[in-house]
Amino acid sequence: KADGKVTTADLANMQLEHFNSIFARYPSLFPDADMEALRYKAVTAESYGIPTARLAEARAKVGSPAFCYRFDLAPEDGPFKGLCVHTSELPLVFGNVHLPTAASTGPVEPAAHRMSGIMQGLWVDFISGQNEMTAEGIAWPSYSVDSRKTMIFADQADVVSDPDAAERELWKAWQPVVSEA
Fold it and tell me: What pLDDT sits at residue 108?
């Protein structure tokens, strides 16, 4: 939505009033973004980014490994131009970048084929239970609360420490209510 308006239907984890109190701070956090980009970024954080970071933190605190990634290889045209939508990395993970449906939500040649090989290698290591996951010389370290190392899949694959630190700090104000049912 170009006006940046968020509705209850856009949210997965919180009430609109709580979201709006956090969303009101997004323009100062990302001053160069328009309202549509701010909406996309905040709703993505609410639905995926913040819950994922909190789950990784919880696992790391009890000594269970967690491996975080962010997929930033967006299509250059089409309905999702410039956006990485949920599951848009899957054609790369499964080596299906050549299918017509893959191009509608994800990146296309040549970056997609190159990144597909890297992602497949890392996923195979992960599924195989490898302690160290490496593909084409790129190592994917586990997440820790101290470093928050996250694999960023974009034009290149690169590990970044705490790539969304400012946004994560903003969301500390929201603590979900957990039921003990």
Answer: 65
